Amino acid sequence: MVGADLDVHRRATGRKLGARAGQHGGQAQIVNAAPSFYLNNINQTQYSIDGTWQVLETGGDDDYMGFVFGYQNSSNFYLFDWKQGTQGYVGRTAAEGMAIKRFTGATGNGLVDLSLEEFWENQTSFGDMTVLATNQSSSKGWVDNKLYNFHLDFNLNPGESTSS
Fold it and tell me: DSSP assignment of the chain, as one string?
């Protein structure tokens, strides 16, 4: 994300990540952290996004990668996430593959409303998290060192979102 404000990230999640600027002004996460995301200061209620991402060799870590869209506050947003391999954690199972989730916390404070379990789960809706779509199987995980392109159209028609 070009021009991400790391201080906004800290306010949204209560955590500060080690980060470095990527090539062409992008961002790179360089520590294995709890669920967290970067924010920029652009009002993003209707937009299209094109980008690329990759996970450099992980040394065996198969966690999520993804991005937030439709951000309203730290407990009300959409999340596209992609898990490299199926894994159990915090009493939940994250299936290999992709999911689109919607978070709808009552207070607007993610530290109060949302749990690690809600971020980890990608098959069953519960708490303040609803699973909207999935593409999961034993061959749907991301691959180390592979560059992926993505495109997202958000809210071009109210209530409709597409990604490829």
Answer: -TT-BHHHHHHHHS----EEE-GGG-EEE-S--SS---B-SS--SSEEEEEEE-----TT---EEEEEEEEEETTEEEEEEEESS-EEETTEEEPSEEEEEEEE-SSS-HHHH--HHHHH--SS-BTTEEEEEEEESTT-S--TT--EEEEEEEEEETTEEEE-
